[in-house]
Design goal:
8 strands, two-stranded parallel ribbon, 4-stranded mixed beta sheet, 15% strand, 6 helices, alpha/beta
Length: 255
């Protein structure tokens, strides 16, 4: 029973799309055929968006941060990452961490068709420096790929945590692997923002232009102290937020 002075929590009402999604989510989760079909449609949709959005003038050239000669931990934000797999260089497959949630499975299947190798796990929990077991296993798998001389991808912020604030997982990966973090942002001039989503998920639309921005490499030292790790976490947050804002300015012709 709530205390007398405690107001009851309001019941969250879902819109028609939310209610429809709840009805079909479990059948979709149980149907591999349906999920593969939807993943193929999503991957082809991302290819269409890439093909019909020329790179905006002033964007960072891909050859300066993306390619086989670079061995980076590529960082992206939740809700701003959907288009990124379409720009995976041909002939390369980047291991990438995806949440273990059912909702992330479709994204992982689509990304695998575009050149990524999904590794399921979470990069930590909000307000904590520790990782849950699945996240720890995923970090180990990403480190092995980095040790083999490959680049990897990771969402920097924590699922359903504070959006656009880096978690400790990506900082830990840089520290234990000796590889630098490079934040990358893609934004299109035509887009749909899902305002009610926790991370303001942005759906990129075709027939516009695409702004691309990347951060300078950020290397976390192996012997970094707790306070230094926190400083690097803030540094990654600020750099990736700056790159994201710049990508939007480029896409919208404001830079």
């Amino acid at each position: 029973m709530p205390a007398e002075d405690e107001a009851p929590r309001p019941v969250r009402k879902r819109g028609p799309l939310g209610r429809a999604w709840r009805r079909i989510r479990k059948p979709l989760a149980d149907s591999r055929v349906v999920k593969n079909l939807l993943a193929s449609l999503l991957a082809n949709g991302l290819r269409l968006v890439k093909a019909t959005n020329p790179i905006a003038e002033g964007s960072d050239p891909f050859e300066t941060f993306l390619g086989k000669d670079f061995k980076y931990i590529y960082a992206l934000w939740h809700g701003q990452h959907l288009l990124a797999p379409a720009y995976t260089p041909k002939g390369q497959r980047f291991p990438a961490m995806f949440s273990r949630s059912a909702d992330a499975e479709l994204n992982a299947l689509a990304a695998s068709r575009l050149g990524l190798e999904p590794i399921r796990g979470s990069g930590g929990r909000e307000g904590e420096h520790s990782l849950e077991k699945g996240g720890a296993r995923a970090l180990i798998a990403l480190k092995k790929a980095l040790d083999q001389g490959r680049s990897v991808c990771m969402i920097a912020d924590i699922p359903h945590g504070t959006p656009r604030e880096a978690g400790m997982g990506i900082i830990t990966l840089s520290r234990i692997s000796g590889r630098p973090i490079v934040g990358v942002a893609f934004a299109t001039s035509r887009r749909k923002v899902i305002e009610k989503s926790w991370d303001k998920t942005t759906i990129n639309l075709p027939f516009g232009r695409c702004g691309v921005a990347a951060t300078e490499p950020i290397q976390v030292p192996k012997d970094a102290t707790e306070s230094e790790l926190e400083d690097y976490r803030r540094r990654v947050t600020e750099a990736l937020n700056e790159a994201t804002a710049r990508a939007y300015r480029l896409a919208d012709g404001r830079s």
